[in-house]
């Protein structure tokens, strides 16, 4: 009888686990799918957010967040797919990738198309100029006010919108597809500056500034008279109805583990490798950023 009792107990436990697992599966169907089939992560291919290293592995502040959280969720088959920054949201909407890890800023118009996790950082903008800054350019207003000054920006990137909000007309913007094209535009003289986030510009100057002869304009933290801080986050597909519910359930599960990661201090230690410090934390949460301005 004791053996039978143990058997019954074991069955009850297994049934409880199975019921719990089924409930979890029904609550988060994408989690089970990604565990079984793997997950595709879109990156824009530049530091400090997500890029390929010489040994073929991928790293960056956003990639390391994804790697940590997905591993904690039990997802081990992770494929990183590099693409132009402007292709990330269309790829999420079309289902070609399952999430993106490119330091994408949370903005209301983007929230209409994709879901965002909570932001992991907040920072200003900047641009690279030729060493010595021959035209004395430091802000977007300087680009607007200087005859003949041209600013290269990523097509579809936040800096294009920031420059326009700060008075830079379209005919002073050179839209490029990626970081290499932007830097090349400055080096060749087709543009006087190439704008990205302050972290990304600092990384270019730190790793190659002296070699290629560029320096930073300095961090830009005021846009159109208002204090500016761009908040970057992992993004997910959105959809409607049951698809939206499934995507939101996965995003919420991701967020819960990300919060624990950040709260433990391990995130800060990881991100410091790319220059992220205590002052670079988010000033607003995702809901606020989706609902009110940049």
TrEMBL record:
<dbReference type="GO" id="GO:0033294">
    <property type="term" value="F:ectoine binding"/>
</dbReference>
<keyword id="KW-0732">Signal</keyword>
<dbReference type="GO" id="GO:0051470">
    <property type="term" value="P:ectoine transmembrane transport"/>
</dbReference>
<dbReference type="Pfam" id="PF00497">
    <property type="entry name" value="SBP_bac_3"/>
</dbReference>
<feature type="signal peptide">
    <location>
        <begin position="1"/>
        <end position="25"/>
    </location>
</feature>
<feature type="domain" description="Solute-binding protein family 3/N-terminal">
    <location>
        <begin position="38"/>
        <end position="278"/>
    </location>
</feature>
<dbReference type="InterPro" id="IPR001638">
    <property type="entry name" value="Solute-binding_3/MltF_N"/>
</dbReference>
<dbReference type="InterPro" id="IPR014337">
    <property type="entry name" value="Ectoine_EhuB"/>
</dbReference>
<protein>
    <submittedName>
        <fullName>Ectoine/hydroxyectoine ABC transporter substrate-binding protein EhuB</fullName>
    </submittedName>
</protein>
